[in-house]
């Protein structure tokens, strides 16, 4: 008897999680290199105990799909900033080992090491941090990631890619980890003085938010109508007994 309500509730629960994902996309619209995400849903067929022959179709969230398309590249004027054209990642050093990011907002720390926005050292191809010498002139970063100053070459940024990019786990702050071994990324080009913007499209996200709200309201009306139907049925049956 409650199956319609259970079905509607499963849909509402999925819509709530979908709204969380859309809200997170909007919150990160200005985060460099952020990739918009979408919920993936599956149909879950349940067999109610009261009617084991019949199957009830529920909504089940399967996971979150990340849109790995490269976002727009914008100039920043900071010679340490880099944008990546291609599917590569920068490699940074953390206390738990190497991690990966596409957020190219870089800077120098107190030891003049090139670090990301989290203060994590950006590694070169020898898995070492890159240090800019004192009193060095303008920094130059070429398309292959070679960092130089007027005092010579500082290092070459370690660029890597992964076969299964969707399976990378986000740790926060634009940092990712994976069990998959990194591969060289020769097809990735480095653009100096620029960053990759988020690929979130505000109009699309707002449209999604409106549609989710509308669907949630429709489900709520269905639950209320079903509740009213059950209440009327119980009232009529009680009069017959």
Characterization of this structure:
The chain is an alpha+beta fold. It is 27% helix and 30% strand. α1 (3-27) runs antiparallel to α2 (202-240). The longest helix has 39 residues, at 202-240. 21% of the residues are buried.
Shape call: elongated
End-to-end separation in angstroms reads 19 Å
How would you classify the helix and strand content by structural class? alpha+beta
Relative helix content: 25-40%
- SSE string: HEEEEEEEEEEEEEEEEEH
Strand order of the biggest β-sheet: 13-14-6-5-12-15
Report Rg.
26 Å
Task: Give the mean pLDDT.
Answer: 91
- Profile the largest sheet: 6 strands, antiparallel
User: What proportion strand?
Assistant: 25-35%
How many helical elements?
2
Please supply descriptive tags for the structure shown above.
single chain; 241 residues; alpha+beta; three-stranded antiparallel β-sheet; 2 helices
How would the blueprint of this fold be written?
Elements lengths: L2 H25 L9 E10 L9 E11 L6 E3 L6 E4 L3 E6 L2 E5 L5 E2 L5 E2 L24 E2 L4 E4 L2 E5 L2 E3 L7 E4 L2 E3 L5 E2 L4 E4 L1 E3 L5 H39 L1
Antiparallel strand pairs: 1-2, 3-17, 4-16, 5-6, 5-12, 6-14, 7-8, 9-10, 10-11, 12-15, 13-14
Helix pairs in contact: 1-2
């Amino acid at each position: 008897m409650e199956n319609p309500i259970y079905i509607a509730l499963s849909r509402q629960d999925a819509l709530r999680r979908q709204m969380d994902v859309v809200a997170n996309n909007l919150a990160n619209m200005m985060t460099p290199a952020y990739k918009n995400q979408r919920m993936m849903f599956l149909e879950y067929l349940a067999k109610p105990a009261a009617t084991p022959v019949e199957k009830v179709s529920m909504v089940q969230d399967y996971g979150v799909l990340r849109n790995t398309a490269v976002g727009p590249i914008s100039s920043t004027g900071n010679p340490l900033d880099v944008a990546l054209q291609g599917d590569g990642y920068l490699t940074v050093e953390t206390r738990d080992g190497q991690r990966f990011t596409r957020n190219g907002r870089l800077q120098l720390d107190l030891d003049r090491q090139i670090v990301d926005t989290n203060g994590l050292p950006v590694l070169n191809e020898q898995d070492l941090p890159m240090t800019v010498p004192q009193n060095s002139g303008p920094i130059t970063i070429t398309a292959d990631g070679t960092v130089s100053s007027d005092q010579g070459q500082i290092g070459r940024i370690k660029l890597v890619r992964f076969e299964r990019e969707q399976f990378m786990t986000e740790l926060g702050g634009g940092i990712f980890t994976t069990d998959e071994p990194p591969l060289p990324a020769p097809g990735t080009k480095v653009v100096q003085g620029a960053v990759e913007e988020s690929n979130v499209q505000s109009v699309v996200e707002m449209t999604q938010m409106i549609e989710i709200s509308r669907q949630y309201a429709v489900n709520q009306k269905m639950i209320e109508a079903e509740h009213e139907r059950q209440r009327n049925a119980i009232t009529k049956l009680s009069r017959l007994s």
